[in-house]
Amino acid sequence: MPPSLFPLLMLLASAAPAQDAAQASDPVQACREWIQGRAWSAQEDDPQTRVVSAGAACFDGAIAAGALEALHAWIDAAAGTARPVLVVRSRGGDSETALGLAEKLQERGASVHVVGVCASACASYLYAGVRDRHVQQASLLLFHGGFSAGNRARALAALEAHVAGPQGASVPEPEANRRAIGQSLDALQVRQDAFYRRAGVDPRIVHGFDGLDVASLDDALCGGPSQAPRRFLYFDDVQMARLGIAPASGRTEQDPRRVNAAIAALDGGFIACRAPRAPFAGARAQEGGAVR
Questions:
Q1: 214-225 pLDDT tens trace
Q2: Phi, psi of 156 (to 5 degrees)
Q3: Residue 28, domain extent
Q4: Rounded to whole angstroms, what are the CA distances from 270 to 196, 229, 258?
Q5: Please, are residues 246 and 212 in contact by the beta-carbon 8 Å criterion?
Q6: Which of 268, 143, 269, 267 is closest to 208 using CA atoms?
Q7: Is residue 267 part of a domain?
Q8: Domain-embedded: residue 198
Q9: Is 47 inside any structural domain?
Q10: 100 close to 71: Cβ distance less than 8 angstroms
Q11: For the segment 20-42, what is each residue's pLDDT rounded down to a tens digit?
Q12: Is residue 165 part of a domain?
């Protein structure tokens, strides 16, 4: 065996492949049952991939460095599959890690199916970045931005606060660090926005968060008065269609009270609000061109 194949085979073997013929014939249902059989509390500490077949895989867990290695191995090996299928439930996580996998899913023309919850980097990249996207009925699809001017400013402000604090002396060459962080985030924003345009998605799903004061939103958009932090926004059917992220099948939960009751049932410790129209207005992007 060529040495280069061994790590790939080991990753695929460690991803708990399913052998049942019924699972292979209906991989989406097989993944739903597997995901729903796992505790939500395992998201952070035990992210797992299950490879159902050469063309289908499931992922349940937070998105972090190393957590998606088995999915990368699977999608790389599925290059000859007509339309690879990924079924996912995730609270989100690292944006750059999610973007890297999402670019491969997009390139392969993959189909992504959401089970129950897809938040943060899961919603912004794994779901939004493909054209064939689906949601289980009443799933939560929660967004809170990505690589943008506002994100860049917050990252640099955090660096400045650290440099000015008691640990500031531990930062070597602060100016070089400022330049490196700024250049890295600028490059990621360009890469992200091109990724969205290829999928016909309006990058305002990220940039619309810049300058938005979530605390000032009408309580009615957030399910009523609450002391819980407002961490996420979600879009209604009209907004999703305009932004180019409407699901091909299924419908997300969009009633503010039911959304936040579902979050509370997961012990989220936060609430989500329905996105206001103005910051996210506009038509979907054209492939290879500017947003209309």
A1: 999 999 999 999
A2: -70, -35
A3: 5-136
A4: 28, 5, 14
A5: no
A6: 143
A7: no
A8: no
A9: yes
A10: no
A11: 555 558 999 999 999 999 999 99
A12: no
